[in-house]
Amino acid sequence: MPAPQKDTLNLVPFVSVDNMMKLILSIGVEEAIEGIAAQIEADFKRWESFDKTPRIASHSKEGVIELMPTSDGEVYGFKYVNGHPKNTKEGLQTVTAFGLLADVYTGYPVLLTEMTILTALRTAATSAVAAKYLAPKNAKVMAMIGNGAQCEFQALAFKRICGIDTVRLFDIDPIATDKAEFNLKDSGLKVVRTSSHQECVSGADIITTCTADKQCATILTDNMVGSGQHINAIGGDCPGKTELHGDILRRSDIFVEYPPQTRIEGEIQQLDPDHPVKELWKVMTGQEEGRTSEGQITLFDSVGFAIEDFSALRYIHDVIKGTPFYDDLDMLADPDEPRDLYGMVRRAEKSLAAAE
């Protein structure tokens, strides 16, 4: 990432929610997911070059607020994100987020952007990248349990990257399924509405669970999962929040992003701390095997990791160039002499007096 010129250091490209929507539509939703997926895969293949730490979480009875930082030594990035399942009943988003990229050499930010929409895109992209390595060959049918904010992005990602042609929908709230069914009607996917968890997963090659309740739930029981299926478990993402019965985990080959975080937040928090798992980046680089047989049950226990957000931020930083879909935000002090911050404050006297 080239360093910004000195005369523009105080101006940081800012992508608002409105501009993010316009940018993604101008690119195409599926195309944007595919582009983010390519960046994620490239960054996972250089996994060892990144600083890595479990996200920094502040928990309350209402939800969680988290910071997710990482750096490859040249570029630093972080995401602020919350998770408040009760918000939906109050007409608010369960998840909101924003993120930042900075130049490590100067420490100056080079991008500030909304990440509520971008997180949905990167989560879908990560799921589909994992499925490239773990799902059955020629998988065509995906079951989607939990039809909330992530649902359509997941379906489109698996269509674009993995080639599914059918998505089966179930949610305990029929209004959520109404929404998903309507939004996917012109997607090119066959959309099948189902009336139960069991009906939804029946005949599916890939099962995605994406529910929001902050509790140890049993969305899938052991008898629902059959030989050869791939499970994309993305709803469990904090301590005390899971979706799968423990017996499913014991039958599955489990793949994770970053074990120190997943063992705290993922489905595997139900298992012994030394239960064997494989890291996805090692599968991508050929150091570990992914799917090895038709009958194998594979499970991607995804909680979301900072490198995925870094990849999404890098993608946005690149694609906004030459577009009208960002604003230059005056957010950094730029004194004429670096040590004269007080003098810079005094520069505003004339404009302040004129305004009066």
TrEMBL record:
SUPFAM superfamilies: NAD(P)-binding Rossmann-fold domains (SSF51735)
Pfam family, one: OCD_Mu_crystall
Signal sequence, renumbered to the chain: none
PANTHER family: KETIMINE REDUCTASE MU-CRYSTALLIN
Family, per entry: Belongs to the ornithine cyclodeaminase/mu-crystallin family.
Protein name in the entry: Ornithine cyclodeaminase
Species this protein is from: Cohaesibacter marisflavi
